[in-house]
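Protein data:
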Amino acid sequence: MAPQHKHLLNNPATLVVDSLKGLVNNNPNVKFDEAQRVIYTPSNGSRVSLLSGGGSGHEPAHAGFVGKGLLDAAICGNIFASPNVAQVKKGLDLITNEKGSLIIVMNYTGDALHFGLAAEQYKASGKPGDVRVLLVQDDVAVSREQGTIVGRRGLAGTILVYKIASALSDSGADLDSVENVAKYVTSRLGTIGVGLDHCHVPGTQPGDAHLKESQVELGMGIHNENGTHKLELPTISELVDTMLFKIINTNDPERSYVPFKNDGSDEVVLLVNNLGAISELEIGGITGEAIKWLQKKNIKVKRVLAGTYMTSLNMPGFSLTLLLLPSKSESNSPYSSEQILKYLDAPASAPGWAWTSGKEPGIIGEKVDEVITEKKAKEVDLAPTDKKEFILAIQRACKALIAAEPELTEQDQIAGDGDAGLTLESGANAILKQISNNKLKGENIIEDIGIIAETVEEDMGGTSGALYSIFFAGLQKALRDSAIQGNKQTTSEVWSIAAESALNTLYKYTRARPPSRTLVDPLEAFITSLPKKGLNGAAEDAKQAAEKTKELVAKAGRGAYVNQEDLKNREVPDPGAWGIWRIVDGLRGFEA
């Protein structure tokens, strides 16, 4: 698998500024210092200011999180490169007030040096407000031996740190309190990432595939750093098991960073983060597996955040983060679980902040309260003039379709996608099964037509199943209306009026009208002729209409996408239309 190296941009050199301009256009609540690439909201002096940043390429982090209840400023470097000291100092000048500022950045050497130096220079300048720096280290893939000097890397857990710290700041807390809660949260974070391959930096030469098609890499960083292990592509459940176990395992002295007790008392916040190129469909599956795994381990999941928070450009991968909440047994904890969750749930508005429920996740399979009262239809009865003959007619029609499967399939292989015969045969067999199971009895026509409508929808599927089901649902309603009006039996007049009404119902949902080379051609011909010519005469008209489709240009349905000249030359009727003819031909001999 080669990394995706195509990008949509004007110029790699202006990509970061172009992106930030787009962000500001989309979010008029923020300001943009283009020269120093600072996204910020002006300080009103009412709270401790929070500043973050780093190399670009991790969007929406960090600029996308500037807004109410989150960051006051984000400093944006080049792709995967720390911003310089002048940029950070400009950010501090723009937002720092008497209450001070807390810088929250990921633990990378460049960020630690540049943000740290800017903080020291700001404090030395004598300007109002103190400035503190907190380096987030949450990557459990980095062993203690590897990180002896530099420490662990910062990853997506950083988002939780400044969300919780910001909520406390909004409450009016001082700098010491905001810094302390940020430190506490950092100490209880574990994150691990996985990638199907590395990402590609715009403006650089495309690289070779880093992994085989059958491999994933565990423990990758967010700047294309290699991971710790290459694994044969596992299932989601296997991969989630490997990743979460590394976070909660307290028996590995090299990577046991978070004080899990694993005794059934642990409570966590789960963050499932898309690293850039994983589909929402897959993220949903990953989230479900992660919640299920934690619940099986008797780890109570108090909150779930899932989405795109911190990317590695277009990396096809994701990371899992666990924030271990304070336990009730931790008598020396400065915070309670309820306090941390309150800060996490506090309102926030920024383009990058995804929706969260503010509640514990549900349990799949648990009993759901029934909130819809049962609605009963008015009981009406409409009997056939001949119960036995009614059922025989349905059987004949179904058997006619089944016998026609080979010719319908052959027609559809030329005029469509080749499945028409099998689709109609499936529906016919399902209706015959309803008769053999004594569910379709011929005693109440309204109920029987309803059973047919449901059966073809479930067993035929596709477009044909939907069209047939709509028609029969319309037929059922028309027959019900007839019974409500006082009719007791299905006379030929009742059938004719109901069939016309059902056709009008079908026309609400399809634009096809005769002549269109679709099933409506013989269907309308049959229904139009039924009052005057009876069943046999109407069936003959349906046959003629079906034959006529050999000469028609397809205006709708499967045939509209096929070479029209070829269809004419081969004199192939529309298989859907031919199926209608076979049905009404099977009904012959049944006179209501």
In short: The CA atoms of residues 132 and 176 lie 9 Å apart.
